[in-house]
């Protein structure tokens, strides 16, 4: 494709300056290290580095043209734009022939429930015999091939490339607020935009809840002409979102609105069973994942499936056979019958939903093992400890992924938070595997032990026990118990 053809996508928005020759463009790159002969290199001012300082390297690697924000003179075509990130999405969409058009795309945003809802939707679509790609925190799945994700929502280049490679009819993707704020979704067009909820998280990045909300709301600017918003009203931010969208005349389906679809008769002791009332019809849904939060996730997926024209009876069967998601309420039963749950909860709301679920399931004692990511939103830590102290009989604070924080600083912070807000129930055990071992050794019948925050993710540093994730630690303890004849 000639540069002038790729540039047409920017020309429309008046972002293009003149250039003198028209080379053949073999690919678009945002990382100078990936540039090859004929690439168009887009220089981005990032949080860690400035892509403009790698232009020379990109040219050495064979770049045929460069897009950037600075006023530069070069021997190859240089196109100055106001915002490289938005230009990247537009250019990539153009280069890959606007692949959003080729699929029915569901974008899911919200603080909690994106991964779960996306897995449920993929499952019900596939049960109905439809093909579905998935882009999200746990994995990217394209044409049934599974890839390790870079981000929850990949960069604009990857999005457009994967959409163009996907031969699946549907694409279900998690859309993070970071991605929306960083214009990774520029050039993407979606058929459904789902908003699950908003809760205190990522305020290191978004500064306050209002600006976090505004970034999340950007998902609806991606809707195709005939696209629809699906909003969960069972939380106050969902109500606000729906109100805003109604004012803006965005076609909207609301979970929790009597005139559309509402949840009734929820049973949570044992299996999750509830009624979804849609217009005059009532659908009885049985869902294997416990907890009220999963009622919302299943209902959001069902509502979207109904609008897609899927058969409700088929969806009900599909939901009943949902196989679960790695690291989302994954349960291992201790020899005493105690339940060990590995979960990805890392917000106050998610803690509440999880720990409350144990109460609903008849837990006599609740133990909770968790930590905080270093270098991430520190303002949420106090609220999370308070919830944990309210619901659990005892909790252990461990060193989670430290990122840029030192272990010493994190441990000091854990002690301090525990003293202030732990209600005398907390203990700092920095080694996560030893904290899990301690809980394993003291577990009794009818105890529920939650290990939260990492889900299926690997530990970033080695701990005492030979395991690389929470699940592996539990399996190690299970195996060791068997070898020692402990039943
Ligand atoms: C803070 C942040 O969000 N950073 C994201 C951002 O990176 P950046 O643009 O700042 O990159 P940078 O390292 O400063 O580099 C700037 C530019 O120089 C280029 N470069 C760099 C080096 C070089 O030698 N040559 C070169 O050309 C880079 O390719 C880049 O184009 O854009 C990248 C591409 O999209 C993201 O991968 C990266 O996510 C980082 C890794 C990250 O951890 N982000 C988290 C906060 C995040 O986005 N999380 C959400 C999920 C949140 C949730 O809901 O839980 C997500 O969507 O994953
Ligand atoms: N609808 C919901 N409301 C509140 N909490 C939820 C909901 N669904 C799941 N959770 C809790 O949040 C955790 C993360 O869920 P999930 O992975 O589906 O969310 P996510 O939005 O993809 O999160 P992340 O962006 O951090 O990957 C779950 O392990 C559970 O504890």
Summarize the structure.
This protein is of the alpha/beta class and 487 residues long.
Description:
- It is globular and about 75 Å long.
- It has three domains: 3-95, MurE/MurF, N-terminal domain (Udp-n-acetylmuramoylalanyl-d-glutamate--2,6- Diaminopimelate Ligase, Chain: A, domain 1); 99-320, 3-Layer(aba) Sandwich (UDP-N-acetylmuramoyl-L-alanine:D-glutamate ligase); 330-483, Alpha-Beta Complex (Protein-Tyrosine Phosphatase, Chain A), CATH 3.90.190.20.
- The strands form four sheets. Strands 8-7-6-9-5-10-11-12 form an eight-stranded mixed β-sheet, sandwiched between helices. Strands 16-17-21-18-19-20 form a six-stranded mixed β-sheet, sandwiched between helices. It has a four-stranded parallel β-sheet with strand order 1-2-3-4.
- The protein has helices at 3-11, 55-60, 84-95, 114-127, 156-165, 177-181, 203-206, 209-217, 236-247, 292-308, 312-320, 348-360, 381-391, 407-421, 432-442, 470-483, and strands spanning 27-29, 39-42, 65-68, 78-80, 104-109, 132-135, 140-142, 145-147, 170-174, 190-195, 223-232, 252-255, 261-267, 272-278, 281-287, 330-333, 339-343, 365-370, 394-397, 426-428, 447-452.
- With 487 residues, it is of the alpha/beta class.
- Bound molecules: ligand UAG and adenosine-5'-triphosphate.
- Residues 110, 112-116, 137, 152, 174, 196-197, 293, 296-297, 328, 343-345, 349-350, 353-354 line the site of adenosine-5'-triphosphate.
- Adenosine-5'-triphosphate is lined by residues 110, 112-116, 137, 152, 174, 196-197, 293, 296-297, 328, 343-345, 349-350, 353-354.
């Amino acid at each position: 494709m000639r540069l002038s053809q790729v540039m047409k996508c920017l020309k429309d928005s008046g972002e293009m300056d003149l250039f003198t020759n028209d080379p053949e463009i073999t690919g678009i790159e945002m990382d100078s290290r990936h540039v090859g002969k004929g690439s168009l290199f887009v220089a981005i001012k990032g949080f860690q580095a400035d892509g403009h300082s790698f232009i020379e390297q990109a040219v050495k690697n064979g770049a045929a043209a460069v897009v950037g924000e600075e006023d530069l003179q070069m021997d190859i075509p240089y196109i100055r734009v106001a915002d490289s990130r938005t230009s990247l999405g537009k250019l990539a969409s153009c280069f890959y022939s606007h692949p959003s058009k080729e699929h029915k795309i569901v974008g899911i945003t919200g603080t909690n429930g994106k991964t779960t809802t996306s897995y449920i939707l993929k499952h019900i679509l596939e049960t109905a015999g439809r093909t579905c790609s998935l882009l999200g925190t746990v994995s990217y799945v394209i044409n049934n091939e599974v890839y390790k994700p870079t981000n929850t929502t990949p960069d604009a280049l990857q999005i457009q490339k994967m959409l163009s490679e996907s031969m699946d009819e549907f694409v279900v993707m998690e859309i993070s607020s970071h991605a929306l704020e960083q214009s990774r979704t520029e050039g993407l067009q979606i058929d459904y935009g789902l908003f699950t909820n908003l809760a205190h998280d990522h305020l290191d990045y978004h500064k306050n809840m209002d600006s976090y909300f505004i970034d999340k709301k950007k998902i609806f600017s991606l809707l195709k002409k005939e696209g629809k918003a699906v909003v969960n009203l069972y939380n106050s931010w969902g109500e606000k979102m729906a109100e805003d969208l109604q004012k803006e005349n965005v076609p909207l389906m609301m979970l929790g609105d009597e005139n559309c679809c509402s949840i009734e008769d929820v049973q949570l002791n044992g299996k999750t069973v509830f009624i979804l009332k849609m217009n005059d019809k009532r659908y009885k849904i049985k869902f294997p994942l416990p907890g009220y939060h999963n009622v919302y996730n299943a209902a959001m997926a069902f509502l979207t499936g109904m609008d897609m024209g899927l058969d409700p009876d088929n969806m009900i069967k599909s939901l009943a056979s949902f196989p679960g998601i790695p690291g989302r309420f994954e349960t291992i039963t201790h020899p005493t019958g105690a339940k060990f749950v590995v979960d990805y909860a890392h917000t106050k709301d998610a803690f509440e939903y999880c720990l409350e679920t144990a109460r609903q399931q008849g837990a006599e004692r609740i133990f909770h093992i968790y930590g905080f990511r270093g270098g991430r939103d520190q303002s949420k830590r106090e609220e999370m400890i308070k919830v944990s102290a309210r619901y659990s009989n005892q909790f252990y604070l461990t060193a989670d992924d430290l990122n840029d924080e030192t272990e010493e600083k994190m441990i000091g912070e854990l002690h301090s938070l525990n003293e202030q807000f732990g209600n005398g129930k907390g203990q700092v055990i920095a080694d996560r595997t030893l904290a899990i071992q301690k809980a394993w050794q003291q577990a009794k019948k009818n105890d529920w032990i939650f290990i939260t925050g990492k889900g299926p993710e690997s530990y970033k540093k080695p701990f005492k026990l030979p395991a690389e994730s929470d699940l592996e630690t539990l399996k190690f303890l299970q195996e060791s118990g068997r070898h020692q004849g402990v039943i």
